Amino acid sequence: MRRDSIFYKLFQQSPSLLFELLTNPPTDANEYRFDSVAVKEPKFEIDGVFLPPQSENPGVVYFCEVQFYKDERLYERVFAESYLYFYRNRDRFSNLHIVIIYPSRSLEQSEIRPYLSQLNSPQVNRIYLDELGDIRSLPVWVALMVLTTLEDEQATEEARYLLTRSQQSTPAPANRVIMELLTTIMVYKFEGKSQQEVEKMLGITLKETQVYREIKQEGIQEGEQRGLQREKSLVLRLLNRRVGELPQEVRSHVESLSLEQLENLGEALLDFTSMADLQTWLEAVES
Fold it and tell me: What is the pLDDT of residues 242-266, one digit of tens each?
């Protein structure tokens, strides 16, 4: 399941969603802008950066990391990239705050002793989605995040509930966005099922939604080129995390892959442990 792209869409549609997870959000949370940035030399890819309003200068910058697999060097990277970005943009910000989102505590880095001072700081929040409470009692945008963590049978039941709840209590434009994000989650979660099976599960007609056009038809995300660029950016970011910074020759090879090949690589890279694994996979594609 491509959770990075799902959370990217959630934060893109509702930047204030991050602050609904925090005990002490900024008073101007609704004015923050969401972005995804790269920090070079060494190159780091930051999942999400929430930039303060331009009227608040300098303001507090928020960094967000969504982590759905165990990474025993996560905190080394998160703190390094966040502080490096903060250092290089010091004049723009008065302070920084780091948020790490896990589906559960079981995926947290095992060795945390070197980072206890940071992790226990009020500037760092670790969010465990399975500890936020009953999904039906959560704000709908937060509930969509939790939906990505549920087992298939429960996910189907709660998705139907959230659809009904959104239709009854959310203005039409926002409801449309929520419906499409929700169906995006379910299509990714049940990608082995047919269109008719997913429609029946949710009680809707997917071909009437943007997500059906984006995921099930060849156009993918409102245009093949746009979808290719987004998938390419996501795969490169994940590869940098799994096997380290890519040599320019390898990076160029990855960038030349078709959309279908990039999607296949996005699934395969979860099993990579070294650059050699990536090179073996690329050689197999060419043969």
Answer: 888 888 888 889 988 888 888 888 8
Structural domain boundaries, residue 192: 132-217
How far apart, in whole angstroms, are the C-alpha atoms of residue 187 and residue 202?
A: 10
Q: Are residues 241 and 269 in the same domain?
A: yes
Number of folded domains that form the chain: 3
What would the pLDDT profile of 25-37 be if each residue is shown by its tens digit?
A: 998 898 898 887 7
Would the pTM count as exceeding 0.85?
no
Integer angstrom CA distances of residue 74 from 42, 77, 241, 276: 16, 5, 9, 22
Closest CA to 21 of 129, 95, 170, 109: 129
Q: State how far the alpha carbon of 64 is from the alpha carbons of 9, 25, 96, 207, in Å.
A: 14, 14, 11, 33
DSSP 287: -
**Are residues 99 and 192 both part of a single domain?**
no
The verdict on whether omega for the bond into residue 26 sits within 30 degrees of 0, i.e. cis, is no
